[in-house]
Structures are given as structure tokens and as C-alpha cells.
Amino acid sequence: MPKTAIAIHGGAGTITQASLSAEQDKAYRLALTKAVEAGHKVLENGGTALEAVELSVVLLEDSPLFNAGKGSVFTKEGKHEMDAAIMCGKTLEAGAVAGVRSIKNPIKLANAIMEHSDHVMLSGYGAEEFALSYGLEFAPETYFFDKYRYKQWSEVRDSDIFMLDHAEQRDEKFGTVGAVAVDMEGNLAAATSTGGMTNKRYNRIGDTPIIGSGTYANNSTCAISCTGHGEFFMRAVVAYDVSCLMEYKGYTLQEACEEVVMKKLVKLGGEGGLIAVTAAGDIAMPFNSEGMYRACKVGKQATYVEIYKS
């Protein structure tokens, strides 16, 4: 029987022990632990990798600590525009949503698109109309309001500056959440969700909902969920590139991840990281930034949770 495994992330960037208080550190670790163990429980009970990654991402979307769902950052207009994607490694089916404003859990909408439509990606008003037709939960603007994120947005809303998240140091914290998993049948799945950039304009969309850039899963290689400066991840087609190195060049998961994250992205000037898993239960969580909120659980092993560089 294949070994069940799951990994999750909650964003990457300039995250050091000096940048978080003891209380913040504890809160992030608790949230990561809850999400990864809930997803792993699904796997251990015979659930699918798709069910596991969706649940883990929903729990991260429901936390105000992460830039997705409830914790999404503010746009230039003071709104919230969210992106998400999910992919099945067995069938290569995928669902994605971009620029939605009122959906409580965008990852659930992405999954509904994959299961109930002939499309891969829906955006904006059309995606919300689709969500209504399948009874997905909407939330008012007050649900997405967070004092800290509002304060960060207030500092830049009258300028042309955008921030990759709500950190005090601009352009140095990338807020995205994601999960990858392998179930008892050896099937892989990946899911990613984000609130995008603080003060973003023009309905900007990043790599998260783009299959092959921020999200990808293929049983023959790996499942990937990325977090970083989306423009670079799109240009480098990061998630699919890791898979390609494994499929066509025979790289191991770790070798492929190192090549893309630590070499290719660095040369482009792209910062961030990713989580990845194979059908054999091997996990990689590389990042070229100061830190990345991450956790994983493999089989009966103890839960691993970390924020900073080892």
C-alpha cells in the first residue's frame, strides 16, 4: 500500500525569527498543524488526495493569518480579489478561478469548476454566477476585513505602490496557501489559493490559478503548489518545469525542485518557494527566501512544522 503524505504552505518571503513575536510564531504553527493534520486524517481514513488538499486549503482560507479567503489583502479599490486552483494527478483534470470577490472559499469553487463544468478557469462575475448555481457559500465584505491588512493598505492606497503581502517591508512577503498530497491509491493532487497583492490594480492575476505555473499535479511525476512573486513563476512555468525535469530528464523530486527554485528562479530574480510530493510519498519544500510557512506529515511519522530556514 502506498505511503500517504501531505504538505502545505502558507506563504514565503522575508520571514525571520526577529520579524515575528512569540505569540505570532505560535499562532502560525498552530494553524499550520491544524490544517496539515486534518488533511492527513482524510488520507488515513481512505479519502482521496483531492479531498485532503481541498480541506487543508479551506482551513487556511478560513484563517485570517494567511493571504487567502478570509485573510485576503486589499486591492487598490479597497476590495478583495481572490484566485485559486486545484488539479487531479490521476486524470490531469483541473479547475481554477480568478478575480472573485465574494466567495468564502475560492478553492471550493475551483473544485466545483473541475467537477461540474467543461472548463478549467472561470473569472470574475461569471465565476461568481457559477458559484451561485452550485450553492457555494458567499460572504459579505465585512467577513474579509482585517484591521492589520487594512492598516497596511492604508499606507500605500494613495500611491502606485503595490505590496506582495501585508508585511511591513514591502515586496518581501508572498501570501499564498497551498497543499499537495498522495493518497492510499497512489493518486496525487495539488491545490493553491491566494488573495493576491496589496493595492493591486487592473484585476491583476498571478500564477496561483494558472495550471503549470503555480499549481500542477501528475501521477507520473509529482504534485506542486507554489508561493512567490507570481510574475516570475508564470514566466518560468515553475510547477510544470519541475514535473518536466522529472519526466524527461529523470531528475529526482529534490533535484528538480532545486534546479527550478534555487537556480532558474534566482537567475530571473524571482523569490519564493514551493511544496511538492511524489506518488511514493517523497516530499520537497524548497524556497529561496528567508522563510516559508510550511508543514508536512508522511505516513505515521510525526508532523513537521517550520517557518524559518533550517
What does the secondary structure layout of this molecule look like, with pairings?
Layout: E1 5-13, H1 22-44, H2 49-61, E2 82-88, E3 94-100, H3 106-116, E4 121-123, H4 124-133, H5 147-154, E5 173-174, E6 177-182, E7 188-194, E8 215-217, E9 223-228, H6 230-236, H7 238-249, H8 253-268, E10 272-277, E11 283-284, E12 291-298, E13 304-308
Parallel strand pairs: 3-4
Antiparallel strand pairs: 1-5, 1-6, 1-12, 2-3, 2-7, 6-7, 8-9, 9-10, 10-11, 12-13
Helix pairs in contact: 1-2, 2-3, 7-8
Care to describe what's here?
With 310 residues, the protein is of the alpha+beta class. It has 8 helices and 13 strands. Strands 1, 2, 3, 4, 5, 6, 7, 12 and 13 form a 9-stranded mixed β-sheet that branches. A 4-stranded antiparallel β-sheet has the order 8-9-10-11. Strand 10 and strand 11 form a beta hairpin. Helix 1 packs antiparallel against helix 2, helix 2 packs antiparallel against helix 3 and helix 7 packs across helix 8. The longest helix has 23 residues. The relative contact order is 0.20.
Taking all Cα atoms into account, the compactness measure Rg is 17 Å
Structural class: alpha+beta
CATH topology: Glutamine Phosphoribosylpyrophosphate, subunit 1, domain 1
The counted number of beta strands is 13
Distance between the termini: 32 Å
Largest sheet: 9 strands, mixed
The CATH H-level superfamily is (Glycosyl)asparaginase
- Beta content comes to 15-25%
- One letter per element, helices H and strands E, the order comes to EHHEEHEHHEEEEEHHHEEEE
Oligomer: single chain
- SS summary, helix count: 8
The percentage helix is: 25-40%
Q: What is the class in the CATH system? A: Alpha Beta
CATH architecture: 4-Layer Sandwich
**Unreliable segments of 5+ consecutive residues:** 165-172
